[in-house]
């Protein structure tokens, strides 16, 4: 009896054999591998980032439409996005992650820029709008903000790119902000100030050294 209990999970009255313990373990193992494979393929965190970014882009398009309607009525853009509600928008859109309003930068009431940081930084639209090296208010200057990678603007303005900025986070020593040769490094984000906006403690901002002649 002891031997049968070790090998069999059950012995039905009709004489048919139940699963052995080994068969159950193999089945559970296969199911676990399949579940892990599905998890890796779907990559739920990346999908969540993309979903949030889709909302961000939709929000900025809604704001653009409302801003143009406002301009057509008043011959100027508002100084604050909250001026759009309730006549042009029922409610002002907010970032799905932070709950904050989007960064609106009006220009003498005759132009505007709106910036946002997309969570999925490999989105091809980052490069398409000129924010591959970061962008933001006064981008490209030492005082500039380069924390954003996407935005929209009125037809008479371009987004302020940080393409000319050369400060980056080196991975050595826990992350240091240094002026780098762009041909020698690939950086998730370039900065315009020697403080790198305090981002270098985060490994996600560390640059990869390429090496090569002149580096």
Give a description of the structure:
The chain is α+β, with helices and mostly antiparallel strands and 215 residues long. Among the domains are: 53-153, Glycoprotein, Type 4 Pilin, CATH 3.30.700; 167-209, no CATH class. The protein has four helices and seven strands, in the order H-H-H-E-E-H-E-E-E-E-E. The strands form three sheets. Strands 1-2-3 form a three-stranded antiparallel sheet, covered by helices on one side. Strands 4-5 form a two-stranded antiparallel sheet. A hairpin with a 5-residue loop joins strand 4 and strand 5 (176-179).
Main sheet record? 3 strands, antiparallel
Strand portion, in percent? 5-15%
Give the helix level as a range of percent.
25-40%
CATH topology of the domain at 53-153: Glycoprotein, Type 4 Pilin
Radius of gyration: 27 Å
Low-confidence stretches: 1-10
Number of strands: 7
Kindly report the average pLDDT value.
83
Biggest sheet strand line-up: 1-2-3
Content-based structural category: alpha+beta
Distance between the termini: 75 Å
CATH class of the domain at 53-153: Alpha Beta
Tally of alpha and pi helices: 4
Q: What general outline do the C-alpha atoms trace?
A: flat
């Amino acid at each position: 009896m002891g031997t049968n209990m070790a090998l069999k999970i059950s012995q039905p009255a009709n004489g048919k054999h139940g699963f052995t313990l080994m068969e159950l373990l193999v089945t559970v193992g296969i199911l676990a591998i399949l579940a892990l494979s599905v998890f890796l393929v779907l990559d739920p965190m990346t999908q969540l980032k993309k979903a949030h970014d889709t909302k961000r882009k939709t929000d900025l398009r809604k704001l653009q439409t409302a801003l143009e309607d406002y301009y057509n009525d008043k011959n100027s853009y508002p100084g604050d996005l909250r001026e759009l509600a309730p006549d042009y928008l029922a409610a002002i859109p907010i970032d799905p992650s932070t709950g904050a309003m989007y960064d609106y930068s009006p220009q003498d009431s005759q132009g505007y820029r709106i910036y946002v940081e997309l969570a999925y930084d490999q989105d091809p639209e980052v490069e398409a709008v000129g924010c591959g090296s970061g962008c933001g208010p006064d981008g490209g200057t030492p005082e500039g903000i380069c924390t954003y990678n996407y935005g929209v603007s009125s037809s008479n303005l371009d987004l302020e790119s940080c393409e000319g900025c050369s400060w980056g986070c080196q991975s050595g020593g826990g992350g240091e902000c240094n002026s780098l040769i762009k041909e020698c490094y690939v950086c998730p984000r370039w900065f315009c100030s020697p403080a790198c906006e305090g981002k270098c403690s985060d490994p996600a901002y560390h640059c990869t050294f390429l090496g090569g002649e002149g580096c």
